[in-house]
Protein 1
Amino acid sequence: MAGQDVIFIGNKPPMSYVLAIITSFSSGSLREVVLKARGAAILTAVDVEEITRTRFIKDLKVKNVVLGTAEMPPREGETKSRMISTIEIALSRA
Amino acid sequence: MAGQDVIFIGNKPPMSYVLAIITSFSSGSLREVVLKARGAAILTAVDVEEITRTRFIKDLKVKNVVLGTAEMPPREGETKSRMISTIEIALSRA
């Protein structure tokens, strides 16, 4: 069965997410890995995809990129919720 | 003739790029605006697209997103060139 793994990109070093992608695709029947990130981690997500594709998985393809907006609860001491940009990068092997 | 504008996203405030997009689409025959950014400006580019779509141009569509890598010259005092992630976001009106 074609599987899909979701990897949430946060503030760990990019290489830890690269390894997570490599591990996911090594597990056999997996067809797709989706990277999800918001705010500053969007840059990390793009870096992770590019490092993985250019250095480790040469046949990696970006199948789809979805941009969006999420509402975040107000910071402590503030009253207004904040809008934050999001990205989803769907990856597959050719 | 269907035109295409390219807007390079740098470190100005996001709203100045939002205005550039609105101005481009107001100019008549234009069919597509492409946002190009690299490095930290990738986050700005996504924010700019989301602000424009959610607040100003309701029928804005993300037609295509291309991720890539560019080689930057070494910083002063360094010898190795650096790799930097890039994004191109193609926008159109539905």
Note: The interface with chain B takes residues 39-40, 42-43, 46-47, 49-50, 54, 62, 65, 67-69, 83, 85, 87, 89 of chain A (CB under 8 Å).
Protein 2
Amino acid sequence: MALEEQVRQALGEVLVPGPMRSLVGLNLVRQVAISDQQVNIALAAAALSAEAQDWIKARTEAVVEKLPGVNKVEVEFTTVKPVEINEINHVIAVMSGKGGVGKSLVASLMAIALKRQGYEVGILDADITGPSIPRMFGITNRPSGNETGMLPVLSKSGIEVMSINLLLPSEDAAVIWRGPLISKAITQFWEEVVWGKLDCLVIDLPPGTADASLTVMQTLPISGVIVVFTPQDLTTMIVKKAVNMAQKMGTPVLGVVENMSYLYIPEIDKQVELFGQSKGEAMAQTASAPLLGRLPIDPELARLCDEGNIERYSSDTFTAFSQAIIEALPKVEAQH
Amino acid sequence: MALEEQVRQALGEVLVPGPMRSLVGLNLVRQVAISDQQVNIALAAAALSAEAQDWIKARTEAVVEKLPGVNKVEVEFTTVKPVEINEINHVIAVMSGKGGVGKSLVASLMAIALKRQGYEVGILDADITGPSIPRMFGITNRPSGNETGMLPVLSKSGIEVMSINLLLPSEDAAVIWRGPLISKAITQFWEEVVWGKLDCLVIDLPPGTADASLTVMQTLPISGVIVVFTPQDLTTMIVKKAVNMAQKMGTPVLGVVENMSYLYIPEIDKQVELFGQSKGEAMAQTASAPLLGRLPIDPELARLCDEGNIERYSSDTFTAFSQAIIEALPKVEAQH
């Protein structure tokens, strides 16, 4: 193996404090130059504090110096904007129009499904006034960063997460902002967060077809949207507005997911359709997109979400849903 | 009874085409002057089409001419803005922060409870991108109006309703607006709709603490808010943001309502707490406001909402909730 390749492999073992993802995963390695047994490494300084830079420099020198044929190592930090570092294969927004149908749940399950299959995944929580993601994943760390950007926080299973709730003084503090500020926050989460190399970034949109959805559809390079609904007629009426919006804006609908589709009652061994008959096929037709799953109301899942342990969830429906998600994103290829 | 009083009583029988509420109820009678057996009546022309004015003029002349001691009747229309006509005792906003917890349901049940007790009630649907009210009440009539304003549509039981969905070409058309337009629509529903005399106007807010909630709290003379939540921790976290917002803006929280509190399963005669233990008392404490009710998940109610027949609902929990609502609004007195 050539020395440069060996160096890059070694850099893949240097973890960045905070997210604890590697220099390679975060795409911070800008250049590796070798000449006469001296290795010069240029790293992006984006969002790294001075202490983090010192720590990374020391670690980098240590692992590279160990390589046979290396005499000297020079590590230099260069200023690069996060948006120039990020290499994201697919950006998928989860939307609904209607609130409380389980957008955040579906966005999270989708990320977990992809992560379990070996994909590198991030979640951008675009629900600025009602962010649910950190609670479901049990994440309370504050993202580190400086004036040039922020590093995402890593979940227990290694999913990158950025949410306004990680930046607030307390998780129930209100964000009383009008649309332009909300749009700005979402744009910053896109441009100023070091997502690094990702197979898929999942965006959890808030309810409605107003500022947040518009900003995401107009300014982010999204591959498509996943639309979530429940079987109530009242809900499907409003969810159709979201489908209409996506169609008007020329954004492909990659699939639809029915949540709260039924409740299994073990005492009587029955599935009860609490909110009416499934609208799965009808919604799939409206959206001209596949039905990716019918998720039940699952008190166990509700409990795991409240406890911050959604990543421990498994069930037969989830396995089937995972498979469908992977098939709906045909062009996503695992990075590693 | 003095003649003027008799005239006003007669005008209370003249219904306005469209909402079919009386001239008196809509507060369109600006002046009644009697001199020498001639009655001069000035009516507000606000939002009335030329045909409606002709119809009202003819009906008014007919009923007043019948009165003993009346020889001649003159009806004149004057230009008055709706906002100058409206006399609304209490404006109550139903909010949550979180979507899908049942704000529209609680707003509707609240209006129905008050109406059944003899109060005059209206609902202003401030959820511009996800309006649910017309579907739940089965209302499809288009509001009539002209360049000066609009008349609300009356529900089957006589509740005044205004919603963006009554103005769209189809109920699933998307409203893809940024915040300023949404705020403007809400302000217009307040200023340019002839609500007339109401004991209570219920405002159904969208999820979140952004433009719509801000506009309602900053520009409308609201008496207070009712906060809706469900027992999931994840939900109560976000609902607390709404409570914080109300407190920051100095808006009193009149009460809190727990929705989807439990599910009664008749086959095993059991109440199951699907989304976790009740958070009712804890939320009441957080909001420093009474717990007005714990509403169950009721498939029958979901069905009635989908059918547009929410006004047919009755249950023991609803009766108790109605009583609590009336007690939470101590200063509301029936108008008639």
Note: The CA atoms of residues 97 and 208 of chain A lie 4 Å apart.
